[in-house]
Amino acid sequence: MNQQTLQEAYLQYCKTTDISEIEINDSNVFYEAEPVKALLVEMDKDKQFAEDTLTLIASEFKTMPPYRACLSAFLIGLFGERGVTSLNADRDLLDYYHIAVSFVMNFITSMAKATQTPQLTKELIIKFFQQLDIKKTTQNQPELIELIKGLPRLSTAVMSRIGTSRAMRSYLRNTNIFLACATVGVAIPAVGFVASMLAITEQEQLLVLFPSNKIGFEVTVEEVSSNFEVFSLLQVALAKEGHMAKLGLPDYKINQDIERLLSREVKGIVPGSHIIDTAAFNYYNLHPIVKENRGRYRMDTDYLCNGAEKIEAMGTLDGRRILLADQCTKPIQWADAAIYGIHPNLHPKLTINRILPKEEFEKWVDAVEGIGSYQTGKKDDEDDFRL
Question: Is the entire prediction scored with pTM above 0.70?
Fold first, then answer.
């Protein structure tokens, strides 16, 4: 069978073969079908054919039953992990993802209106899905059930592809899909992971101030998903550039396992590795600090920086994001998953741009001392979704 025939047989199978109840509950049934297996074997042999096939399949998503489109989309992520990519296929994948998530979001919205719910909670969203009559909905609105069942595979492909490219993440953000992903993700966790990837800090400068040590740094962080990553990256960078002695930790040693995780030398977390990082300092969100005897500063432990949050919680002053740090009195630890971040295709990075000159450092410390209010970027009702 020649390559074109293999492509045609695959598309015909996707579009015309009935989706059994077994298949919709076990996607491996699809991948074991003869037309699918035959195409995959040929794609593994011929990289150019694989690229052309991904482009063709992606262009046909809208003509397939939604479930088969989702399973076909998974191939874009699968082959992307092997270095086989197609820009057109990536774009069609993200466009279809917007359509799929929006469709399921419309179901949530319609349920909220039918139950006269002006404000959604996580519990209510989950309840909507639990109360869904699968048999009745499959008869009356098969697309909804197919998308609910197919979105985990589709989301896996999307995570793989947007993890490799800031441009693709920006493209998907520009479709204004984030809120829908966060909402649908309450019931379909894989969609929630896509929302988390869209919420990462792509690139931002921080001022890291150690008032009691009379030193501060301007750093740039990239592709970080939590403050835990920032802490780990910062500690490694400070140690590698020889700053730990100035900060009162002359014997600090870099944990090589942590460095390998951060650098992506290790592709994924090894089960049972139990790699733990420990805070070398107390890290604080921006708040007024108080100067005490001998030039030391007192910081308020109510403002200890939550490692699970994002850097927006640190606070800004005069347009600059600021992280305060002092000697460690409340050691915290975080595990390998928090060090590694949310996806192996992301590459978290922290660069120390410069040590702040004495005058600039003192200006910032004086400003922090006299601060009356600050921006945290926190939301009061993180569990609520407004329609």
Answer: yes
